[in-house]
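Students often ask why inverse folding is considered easier than folding. One informal answer: many sequences map to the same fold, so there is more than one right answer. In these notes we will look at a single instance of the problem. The structure comes first.
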């Protein structure tokens, strides 16, 4: 059975212009001509075209496709193996680019306006997974406090972030020391560390009430990504997140209990 150029184009989605090019280059020359001189493609031509499209989909150049079709020997298997290797490398590269793009999106949504080099310099291991900040923004972004926090973070300079991280590192060392020394989570030392952390949030991001701090500390236990933004994985100990949460809860309770006495004293 014979098919016109238009019919072949309709079957395969290949443009008439491309079919003419294949004919001129010798890649696919129709086996017949109509009495008027028009190209006519037989079943064998259609089968060859489908093989051309298959190799084109795999990314082979036309010159190599022609060699494959004209010499279908053992070299075809070698060429396919090599192409598979190349595609595997491309997939890995694209996956790395996707990861980089997603990380950039997360950083932008988290409100950190630093270059990648500056982020490594300032944050080090702390910036392990900013997807938590992204999820938090999606969850609480409608709240004024969250919007204010993101706006303040976006306004921080490199030196602001450097000072912020230095304060956080110093506090973190004292927190870990208290935990390692088995300090009671509801003791004065632990509550003071929790209060220092609460004030740190208020100073650098948004006002943080004891109750808000209690909710933030709950996240440290419920979501490892949250705690990793406070204590890098390499410095964490089993139970440390729970210790900080208990200290924050104890501090909130102590603060609430102290308020009436402050009013009475005044």
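Output (designed amino acids):
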């Amino acid at each position: 059975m014979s098919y016109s150029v238009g019919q072949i184009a309709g079957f395969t989605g290949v443009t008439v212009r491309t079919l003419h090019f294949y004919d001129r280059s010798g890649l696919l020359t129709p086996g017949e001509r109509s009495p008027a001189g028009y190209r006519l493609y037989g079943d064998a031509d259609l089968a060859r075209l489908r093989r051309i499209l298959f190799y084109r989909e795999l990314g082979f150049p036309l010159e190599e496709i022609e060699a494959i079709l004209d010499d279908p020997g053992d070299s075809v298997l070698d060429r396919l193996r090599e192409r598979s290797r190349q595609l595997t490398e491309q997939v890995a590269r694209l996956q790395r680019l996707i990861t980089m793009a997603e990380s950039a999106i997360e950083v932008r949504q988290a409100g950190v306006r630093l270059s990648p080099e500056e982020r490594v310099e300032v944050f080090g291991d702390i910036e392990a997974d900013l997807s938590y900040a992204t999820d938090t923004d999606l969850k609480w972004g409608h709240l004024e406090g969250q919007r204010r926090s993101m706006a303040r973070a976006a306004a921080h300079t490199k030196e602001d972030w450097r000072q912020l991280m230095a304060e956080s590192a110093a506090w973190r060392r004292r927190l870990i020391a208290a935990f390692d020394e088995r300090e009671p989570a509801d003791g004065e030392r632990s509550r003071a560390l929790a209060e220092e952390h609460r004030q740190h949030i208020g100073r650098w991001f948004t006002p943080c009430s004891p109750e808000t701090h209690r909710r933030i500390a709950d996240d440290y236990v419920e979501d490892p990504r949250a705690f990793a933004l406070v204590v890098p994985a390499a410095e964490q100990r089993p139970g440390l997140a729970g210790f900080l949460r208990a200290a924050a809860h104890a501090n909130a309770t102590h603060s609430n209990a102290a308020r009436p006495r402050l009013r009475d004293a005044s």
